[in-house]
Design goal:
The chain is an alpha+beta fold. About 45% of the residues lie in helices and about 20% in strands. The longest helix is centred in the last third of the chain and has 27 residues.
Length: about 110
C-alpha cells in the first residue's frame, strides 16, 4: 500500500490535515516537530506559533487534526512587526557586533 502525502501550501483555518501533512508543512518553516511542544500540540494541550500565525490542533475521530488559527500578529497589534523580522534583526545585530570585534582584534594584532 502506498501512502501519498500532498504538499500543503498553507494551513487553512478549520480544515483537517493528517499528521504527515502537518509535519511536512511545519518542518519547512519551523523546528516544532522535533520538540516536546509538538507532542503536546498533537494532544491539544498546547498552541504554537509559526511565522505570523498561532495554531492549535484538535484531534478528530478520523485520526486527523483540525487546525485552528488562533490569532495573527496583525490582528493582535497592527503596528507590531512579525516575529521573524525581529529575530532576523537580532541576529543581524549580533553578527555585526562579532564582525566588529574580529576587525578590532585584527587591527590590534598587526
Amino acid at each position: 500500500m502506498f501512502m501519498v502525502i500532498i504538499a500543503v501550501q498553507t494551513l487553512e483555518n478549520n480544515v483537517e490535515y493528517s499528521a504527515g501533512e502537518l509535519q511536512t508543512w511545519l518542518s519547512t518553516r519551523s523546528r516544532i516537530c522535533s520538540t516536546v511542544l509538538w507532542r503536546r500540540a498533537l494532544e491539544e494541550k498546547e498552541a504554537f506559533e509559526v511565522g505570523e500565525f498561532t495554531y492549535k490542533l484538535q484531534p478528530t475521530a478520523s485520526g486527523r487534526y483540525l487546525v485552528k488559527k488562533i490569532a495573527t500578529m496583525e490582528l493582535i497589534n497592527p503596528q507590531r512587526k512579525p516575529m521573524s523580522i525581529k529575530r532576523a534583526a537580532k541576529w543581524t545585530v549580533i553578527a555585526l557586533g562579532l564582525v566588529g570585534i574580529c576587525l578590532t582584534l585584527i587591527i590590534l594584532t598587526k
